[in-house]
Amino acid sequence: SAPPPTPPTAVGRGTLPPGERGGCPRGASVEYALAFSRDGRRIVAGVNRYVATRQIPGAVMVWDLAHSSKPIFNVPAPHLPLAALSPDGRVVYTATTGEPSLRAYDVETRRLLGSTGTDLIGESRKGAIEVSPDGSTLAVAAGGRILRFDAHSLRREPDLVAHTAEVMDLEYSH
After folding, report:
1. Confidence tier at 76 by pLDDT (50, 70, 90)
2. What is the DSSP code (8-state) at residue 19?
3. Fewer beta carbons within 10 angstroms: which end of the chain, N or C?
């Protein structure tokens, strides 16, 4: 006989059935990308999905923490997407494999504001993305380099060479 169903879990204002907490589909996991907006009102996650041990395309999702039962932004993304929010939480930046690999979206309208770059992340599918505290610069860790972009135009700025090992995380000081 099957085990008894798990009771719904309280999330934000409502309750959701098991496997759909916070609006995430069954088989979803967050492995590399999870960040708050600087004002603490929103959170972004790069959500990965697995069905019967097979990875399928994931998503980048943003939640308003005051009403967190369902994401306010959800855009499909390849496996292991990286994501960061502007300080006010109005713009979400994504870095993925493929082209264009860097994108900026308006969270409220889901409108693509801009995109650039060839495959910045590369085959490792690991890295990090971070927005400067003033919202002017975007940094993307790719291999042993930190790629820098103007956060508004996505124009490339001079890279920082970190070291010969792969950069797995980065953080601006506040």
Report:
1. confident
2. T
3. N
Do the beta carbons of residue 162 and residue 142 sit within 8 Å?
Answer: no
CB 58 within 8 A of CB 48: yes
How many angstroms separate the CA atoms of 105 and 22, rounded? 21
CA distances from 43 to 56, 75, 91, 155, 163 (A): 23, 15, 12, 25, 30
User: Which residues are CB-neighbours of 12 under 8 A, at least 6 positions away?
Assistant: 22, 65, 66, 67, 68, 69
Cβ-contact 72, 59 below 8 angstroms: no
| Predicted TM-score of the model (pTM) | 0.77
Distance from C-alpha of 83 to C-alpha of 62, rounded to nearest angstrom:
10
- Both tokens of 19, joined, read 């496997």
The 10s digit of each residue's pLDDT in 108-136 is 999 999 998 766 665 555 678 899 999 99
CB 80 within 8 A of CB 127: no
Cβ–Cβ < 8 Å for 122, 166: no
149 forms bridges with which residues in the sheet?
138, 156
Give Cα separations from 74 to 15, 23, 28, 105, 133 (angstroms). Answer: 20, 10, 13, 10, 24
For residue 18, cis peptide bond before it (omega within 30 degrees of 0)? no
